[in-house]
Specification:
The complex is a heterodimer of chains A (280) and B (96). Chain A is an alpha/beta fold and 280 residues long. Helix content of chain A is 38%, strand content 16%. Classes of the chains: A alpha/beta (280), B alpha+beta (96). Chains A and B meet through helix 1, helix 2, helix 7 and helix 9 of A and helix 1, helix 2 and strand 4 of B. The complex binds thiamine diphosphate (TPP) and iron/sulfur cluster (SF4) (3 copies). Thiamine diphosphate binds next to helix 4 of chain A.
Chain lengths: 280, 96
């Protein structure tokens, strides 16, 4: 009997691609990829009913390594392609995998409107606070004061929270984890893929090469230790004051609610139009 | 429709509750060095501190008997280079 790790490697990786993968040693993208595969494996989905879409970025490379129906698309458009796939065939399980720049800078508009429409999709956002692939420019989640190649004397803008943005925009399910909490990522992705409605999983990840190093946060191991120390669970965060939550990362399910889902409403509105007898 | 529904709940509690099951369980940990990038994550976070490095900085198991099978190393390896498996009972020499 193969172990679960062996089964995942054999079944879901595209062995005609070059391994080890392209990511830097210790990059959190690989940890998220493992969690995604364990979640799909645990849900016993057939590979044919899963569609992975991504944009451009280090994180965007993920679907190219994975043996599902995959679309490696243009920067910021993982969700647009995912929307098209879902509308064409609502029976498919569609997951968009994005970086923070991909999802919230160039793709920010698509992201908030996908959440507002509450499409029946899953969005995984690997938030490493930087544009990794292009050499470390600041992204919408780069903290105030941080050093990047486009903020060499300290960043003068403020970061926003991806998860809170998704909640405000109307997503049915919003959750957060960090790459240190890998088993939590498995569970959150599993819940998100089962959720009726737009489901967002934000994973705080390490780009020690483009972000950690410049900001004196150390390497992959150091950054994972920081994620461990900074994390507070949702239930514990409820008992803390805003001052105490400063510099902390809340992990777990932030929102899980039942809302009308546009992919289902679309079917209903077509029926209503048909039954009205109007000649349109 | 179109999102996952759990088809069957896998048996999670496989632990045998009989007294003999309290006997220590052993695990084997193997590294696929062709994929490992020596990132240091497995060595740093193993709760038993049994993953050391060889002269090239690659991970090696120093004392497999002390592995508790937590799989922290396996699920945190970004390169799918670790396998933790239940140790199979060794055959006795004349047990053919
Ligand atoms: C239309 C367009 N604009 C800009 C780029 C250049 N570009 C490639 S990846 C990237 C940002 C990647 O950052 P992020 O989405 O955070 O992903 P990461 O690499 O950190 O995983 C940019 C700006 C592009 N490929 N296409
Ligand atoms: S540049 Fe950063 S995000 Fe890209 S592979 Fe390297 S560590 Fe990962
Ligand atoms: S975590 Fe994986 S890639 Fe990193 S040193 Fe250990 S085996 Fe190698
Ligand atoms: S399974 Fe746990 S105890 Fe065993 S080597 Fe890996 S991290 Fe260490």
């Amino acid at each position: 009997m193969p172990t679960p790790a062996q089964a995942i490697r054999h079944e879901y990786l595209r062995h005609n691609k070059k391994f080890p993968h392209v990511w830097c040693p210790g990059c959190g993208n690989g940890i998220v990829m493992g969690a995604l595969l364990r979640a799909i494996h645990h849900l016993e989905l057939s590979k044919d009913e899963v569609v992975l879409t991504s944009g451009i970025g280090c994180s965007g490379r993920m679907p190219t390594y994975l043996d599902f129906n995959t679309l490696h698309t243009t920067h910021g458009r993982a969700l647009t392609f995912a929307t098209g796939v879902k509308l064409a065939n609502p029976a498919l399980n569609v997951v968009a995998i994005m970086g923070d720049g991909d999802a919230t800078a160039i793709g920010g508009n698509h992201f908030i409107h996908a959440a507002r429409r509450n499409l029946n999709l899953t969005a995984i956002i690997i938030n490493n606070s930087i544009y990794g692939m292009t050499g470390g420019q600041y992204s919408p989640t780069t903290p105030f004061g941080a050093i990047s190649t486009t903020s060499v004397y300290g960043h003068i803008e403020h970061a926003f929270s991806i998860a809170e943005l998704a909640v405000t925009a109307g997503a049915s399910f919003v959750a957060r984890s960090t790459v240190y909490h890998a088993d939590l990522i498995d569970r959150l992705i599993e819940q998100a893929m089962q959720k009726r409605g737009f489901a967002v999983v934000e994973v705080i990840s390490n780009c020690h090469v483009q972000y950690g190093r410049r900001n004196k946060l150390g390497g992959a191991v150091d950054m994972l230790k920081q994620f461990k120390e900074q994390a507070v669970t949702v239930s514990r965060a409820e008992k803390l004051s805003p001052e105490e939550l400063e510099g902390k990362t809340t992990i777990g399910v932030l929102v899980d609610r039942e809302l009308p889902v546009s992919t289902e409403e679309y079917k209903k509105v077509r029926r209503r139009a048909h039954e009205s007898g109007d000649k349109v | 429709m179109g999102k996952a529904t759990k088809k069957s709940e896998p048996v999670t509690d496989t632990k045998d509750k009989t007294p003999s099951s309290r006997k220590k369980k052993y695990f084997d940990v193997s590294f696929y060095h062709d994929w490992c990038k020596s990132c240091g994550i497995c060595m740093a976070f193993c709760p038993q501190k049994i993953i050391g490095t060889d002269s090239k900085g690659r991970p090696v198991i120093e004392d497999a008997d002390r592995c508790v099978g937590c799989r922290f190393c396996e699920i945190h390896c970004p390169d799918f280079a670790i396998t933790v498996s239940d140790r199979k009972p060794k055959r006795r020499i004349n047990d053919v």
